[in-house]
């Protein structure tokens, strides 16, 4: 998968929006690893939750030009940046400023992607709408992620796939157990050690 151009972004804008980092590129690499599998699924609708700068959903859209792509972010400046990243790479992403996928309940996506705020913090640090929302994950670094897990059965098609980036501190086995209760199988698509972080991309699916 091609890395989207980011030369339209002023470095100072990253004071307000998450700057793409190793986790963003691990997610893109995981999607690339599954490229043929995803092409066989021929997805109609894809949603990235928490799109930040928009590099992940833009990379996806560039590889899947017929898939209708949506993104959300709690940080409206991230929504603006996602939109401009899409435009600067000549693709289209419908970008909505919302909490997770709350306003999409009842609509179904074939692919859902999430690189959450995964850093373990105190609960009171998490739940903001600014740059802190990029990293502050609360207890186990999972407070935001766990809320999305509960939404997945309501927004993912039965044939759909959910890609989620986690670190070991998030206790991935607990996430796998939660998703199993909702009827999802899981696989580790890719993992990488980045400085002191063990990052992994999991995928969840029913069929
Ligand atoms: C680790 S950053 C990932 C950004 C981008 N997807 C990437 O991989 O570079 C997490 C993103 O999730 C967003 N976010 C955090 N809480 C959210 C929520 N409740 N609803 C929607 N987006 C949220 C943050 O604003 C941030 O853009």
Can you name the CATH architecture?
3-Layer(aba) Sandwich
Number of domains: 1
The CATH topology comes to: Rossmann fold
How far apart are the first and last residues' alpha carbons, in Å?
Answer: 25 Å
Number of helices: 6
What's the CATH superfamily, by name? Vaccinia Virus protein VP39
CATH class descriptor name: Alpha Beta
Q: What's the shape?
A: globular
Major sheet size, sense and barrel closure: 7 strands, mixed
Low-confidence stretches: none
Q: Can you write the helix and strand succession as a string?
A: HHEHEHEEHEHEE
For the residues shown, what is the average pLDDT?
97
Helix content: 25-40%
For the biggest β-sheet, the strand order reads: 3-2-1-4-5-7-6
Structural class: alpha/beta
Bound molecules: S-adenosylmethionine
Radius of gyration: 15 Å
GO molecular function: nucleic acid binding; protein-glutamine N-methyltransferase activity
GO cellular component, one term: nucleus
Domain Methyltransferase small: 36-122
Subcellular location: Nucleus
Summarize the structure.
The chain has 207 residues and is an alpha/beta fold. Helix content is 31%, strand content 26%. The chain has one domain (11-205): Vaccinia Virus protein VP39 (Rossmann fold).
Can you walk me through this structure?
This protein has 207 residues and is α/β, with parallel strands linked by helices. The chain has one domain (11-205): Rossmann fold (3-Layer(aba) Sandwich). It is built from six helices and seven strands; from the N terminus they run ααβαβαββαβαββ. A seven-stranded mixed sheet has the order 3-2-1-4-5-7-6. Helix 1 runs parallel beside helix 3 (55-63). The radius of gyration is 15 Å and the shape is globular. The protein starts with 21 loop residues before the first helix and ends with a strand. 44% of the residues are buried. The model has no long low-confidence stretch (mean pLDDT 97). The chain binds S-adenosylmethionine. S-adenosylmethionine (SAM) binds at residues 18, 20, 24, 27, 49-53, 55-56, 72-75, 78, 99-100, 115-117, 133-134, 144.
């Amino acid at each position: 998968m091609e890395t989207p151009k980011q030369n339209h972004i002023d470095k100072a804008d990253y004071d307000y929006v998450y700057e793409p980092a190793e986790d963003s590129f691990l997610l893109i690499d995981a999607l690339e690893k599954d490229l043929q599998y995803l092409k066989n699924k021929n997805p109609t609708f894809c949603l990235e939750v928490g799109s930040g700068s928009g590099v992940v959903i833009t990379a996806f859209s560039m590889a899947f030009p017929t898939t209708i792509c949506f993104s959300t972010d709690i940080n409206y400046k991230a929504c603006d940046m996602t939109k401009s990243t899409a435009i600067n790479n000549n693709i289209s992403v419908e970008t909505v400023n919302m909490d997770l996928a709350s306003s999409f309940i009842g609509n179904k996506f074939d692919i859902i992607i999430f690189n959450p705020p995964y850093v373990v913090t105190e609960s009171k640090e998490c739940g903001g709408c600014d740059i802190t929302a990029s990293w502050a994950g609360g207890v186990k670094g999972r407070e935001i992620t766990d809320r999305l897990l509960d939404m997945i059965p309501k927004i993912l098609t039965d044939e759909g796939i959910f890609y989620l980036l986690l670190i070991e501190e998030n206790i991935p086995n607990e996430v796998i157990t939660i998703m199993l209760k909702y009827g999802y199988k899981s696989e580790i698509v890719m993992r990488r050690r980045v400085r002191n972080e063990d990052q992994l991309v999991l995928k969840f699916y029913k069929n």
